Amino acid sequence: MVRLPPADVNRHGPPLPGLATERTTLAWSRTALSLVANGGLLLKVAVTESGAAAVAAWVLAFGAMAAGAFAWAFGMRAYRRVREHILAGRPSVRPEALRGLSTVTILLAVAAAVLAVATA
Amino acid sequence: MSTAPDPPDYHPHASPELLERIANAPLREVGDEPDPRFTFANERTFLAWNRTALALIAGGIALAEVVKFDVHWLRLVLGLPLIVLGAVLAIASLRNWDLNERCLRMALPLPYPRTPRLLAYGIGVVSVATAIVVIVDAIVGK
Fold this sequence. Notes:
The complex is a heterodimer of chains A (120) and B (142).
Chain A: H1 20-48, H2 52-87, H3 95-118
Helix pairs in contact in A: 1-2, 2-3
Chain B: H1 16-24, H2 36-66, H3 74-105, H4 115-140
Helix pairs in contact in B: 2-3, 3-4
């Protein structure tokens, strides 16, 4: 009987990524879907409002969807890159991406609040 | 007499001075690179909080723009707090991620997060407010 070693055990080298990168990629794609859902909701606002509010809603909707597409692509690309980083023993922390996502979320909230007050 | 043990301090092993230095130094100069799986777990925790913030913002947009009340300004009373709570959580989750990452690099215990309490109270308050608004709208606006 052939016994294969467990995939995630490496006692003598840097820790192997295992499924952590996959879970992280999935987390990014869920976040991307949340951004796209916000965009879809704002599309509904865009078609029901008129004038400047409608224009603002269109811009916000496409902005949120574009951010979602970017987050999804980032998660997919990072999956491979970071795996290589870990296996090479290089740092895997990515503060810029997280700061970017936070900034997008805060901007979305501020814009949504302004839009809500303006159309009330 | 109660013999309950004292709750653990914010950071049992770090002095306030050390914590301040950890919090203010450039991230990559603090301590050592942690196990990448910890870095990923921290990143996923941040992403989960960020999704929560996005869900709150979406709920706020839906209440403020899509739901129809007879007293039309009532939808702002419900929508705006949700959007603001989403913004606050977006900021707090980035801050928590940063502190967690620094403590991981220093092999310190992770700080006790305040965001779960904030989220629970926020949702509780908005839920009660929603119930009141629905009743007020039914009585006042006909």
